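In this section we walk through a basic example: taking a raw amino acid sequence and producing a predicted 3D structure, encoded as discrete structure tokens. The instruction is simple. Fold the sequence below.
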Amino acid sequence: MAGVSIHITQGVVTCTLDNGQRRNALTAGMLATLIETLKQAQTDSALRAVVVRGANGTFCSGRDLSELDAQRDHRPSPEDAIAPVTQLARAMHACPVPTLAVVEGKAVGLGVALASWCDMVIATDSALFSIPEARAGVPPTFTAVSLAQTLGQRRALSLCLTGRPLSATQAQSFGLAHFVFPDADFEAQVQNLVQDLLKGGPNAQRHCKALLGQVGSDAFDAAIQLAQRAAIDAMGSAESQEGIQAFKEKRPPAWYKGGL
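The resulting token sequence is shown next.
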């Protein structure tokens, strides 16, 4: 069953996404677990860091749309479907301790946004980042506004409009990935980085995060609010329905005729 395993050692909370059949796509239950874990971090003074990673050699392929399809007869309203994503973004932003995204394999769509919400991103040199939603007629709302804040508007647009995958090296040059290491010694490098975080003074790190969070909190909240409204407006549109159906049927969407 899809879920998030939580492991705590030395005050470091490791959240491992595990939805193997869907390449670690986020279900409602997984979102709820991440939100609750991050909220606990706000009140637990013993915690030092939060690590988010994926099982099965991949990071996260976005939101689990198959779950929404399975709820066809009792599908949540657009507002209810979008709310957990908004809550997760805000919980990540409010987390008082350092957050680290460990990206192996693919980070897709909302998975890229999740990585961008973390303070630091460490990736294998074979990792790929992509935002393909527009190809399915779905605007990548949360990912777009999140990348605009971390990478700048033009770079965010280039990724969101084309859907082209970004290699780990390119992600690092864009500012999305902070550290890139070979697969062979990747786990050791992850542990080294975690130990570097533990060497810092706990209160100094919390105060630093709080200070920098105040600098950009208004812009972040406004951007997430805009993304939430845009996502609600886009859900159920004729274009998104056609795009998602075409993706399922492995055919080009109606608007793409091919060639030039």
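Looking at the output, two observations stand out. The longest strand covers residues 3-9. The two ends are 45 Å apart (CA to CA). In the next section we compare this with other chains.
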